[in-house]
Amino acid sequence: EVHVQQELNVTLDMIQREMDSDTPAHDRATWHYLGLLGVWLERQTIRAASEAPRPDAARRLVERYTKLMERYFKTGAGVGEMASALGVTSTHLTRCCRQACGRSSIALLQDRRIFEARRLLSETDMKIATIGQSLGFTSPAYFARAFQLQTGQSPSAFRRTGL
Question: Are residues 38 and 79 in the same domain?
């Protein structure tokens, strides 16, 4: 990185020298040095992109899982069904989720469902039971328990307070 910094400093010094100069064609020379600076920046950007770490297999799987989850979180599909759709076991999917983001696959799915429930409770007049059913919860009681466990309040209390 020292070499890269030296290259930048030399180019910036040359630009500054030409800008401070009153010799013939100093303005044209300044523009050419600025062009060289642009080329240098482009090359550094390309180099940095090629050296950037590629996502590992676990991150790629979790990315595919979150995209699939976004499409199907309202259907009641569980982690097992989504893991099968991704061609892996639910155990492997959970291991990758924990490795990539520190949360289990079921926790990520539950987070998404509760996030949507919070949005629907805040922004709509839908009945609480309907919201739970629309998000794939098998019963209003299960929805209320899951919501309270995650948020610390019941769906009706959340709706009243608007938090």
Answer: no
